Amino acid sequence: MKFNMITKIFFLSSLFFIPALAEAVTAAGEVAQIRGAGIAHARASDGGLRKIGIHDAVYSGDSISTDKDTSLNIRFADGSRFDVGPKAEFVVDKFSYQQGTEGGAFYSRIIKGTFRFVSGLIAKSKDRDMRVSVSVATIGIRGTQVEGEVSERQEKDGVSVDASAKVVLLEPEEKGKETSIIVSNEFGSVVIDKPGYGTEIPDEKSPPSPVRKMQLHTIDNILRALRSSVRQGGAPKPRMP
Predict the structure, then answer these.
(1) How far is it, in rounded angstroms, from Cα 51 to Cα 149?
(2) Which of 109, 203, 86 minimizes the C-alpha distance to 154?
(3) Cα–Cα nearest to 104, from 51, 141, 146, 56
(4) pLDDT at 46 over 70
(5) Which of residues 161 and 150 earns the better pLDDT score?
(6) What is the pLDDT of residue 181?
(7) What is the spatial distance between Cα 52 and Cα 32, in angstroms, rounded to a whole number?
(8) Helix (H, G, I), strand (E, B) or coil at 200
(9) 155 partner at 20 to 30 Å CA-CA among 19, 124, 183, 233?
(10) Which of 194, 86, 93 lies closest to 138, judged by CA?
(11) Which residues, 6 or more positions from 181, have their beta carbon under 8 angstroms from its beta carbon?
(12) Chain-wide mean pLDDT for the chain?
C-alpha cells in the first residue's frame, strides 16, 4: 500500500515536469541548407559540442560556428531565416515562440563573419521582440531583410585591431511593405529606412556612422561570402536608389 502511494505521487508529480521538459528540448529551428566542403558545429549552453548538417535541429542557447569552407541557412519556427558565411559564429541567445500564437521573443548575436537575415513572425508581431546584436551594436528589427559583416577584436603582428561591423538594409521580400532598422550602441543610434543604405561601426567606442548609400562593391563582397549558401525563394539583391 505504501509502495503504491509513493508510485502515485511520483506519477502525478512527473506530469508537471513533462511539459516543461518537452518545451526545453523543442527546437528553435533547423539547418535548411549547408554548402561547402567544410563542417559546422553547434555548442549548447551546457558546453556540449555537436556537428550539424542539413535538417539538424538548432536550439535556444546554441552557438553556431562554420569553418572556412562552409556556409549555412538556418530556418526558425517563426519563419525567420539566417544565412551565415564561412568562418562565422552566430549565437541564439533566446528563442521563444509557440505556433499559432501572437508574440514570442528572439535574441541573437553575430560574433563574427558575414550574415543575412530575413525576419519572421516575431518581428512582425505587436511587441516586435526581436534583436540581432553584433559585437559593437544592436540592430532593432521592424520586419525586414538585412545583411552585414562583423569582425572581432584580434591581434595582428602584435597590434590590436578593434572589432567593427557593417550593416546594410535590403529590399523586403514582400513588395510594398515598409522596412527599417535601428542600429544603436551606448554612443549613438541611426535609423535606416532606405534599401541599399547602411552604416558602419568602426570600433567598440564609436557610434554608428551617419546613414549612407553603400557602395555596390561593399554589398557584393558580403554577398560573395554568402553565395555558397543557397537561399530559399531566391533572396533579392538590394535596390540601389
Answers:
(1) 24
(2) 203
(3) 141
(4) yes
(5) 150
(6) 92
(7) 11
(8) strand
(9) 183
(10) 93
(11) 139, 140, 141, 142, 144, 146, 167, 169, 191, 192
(12) 81
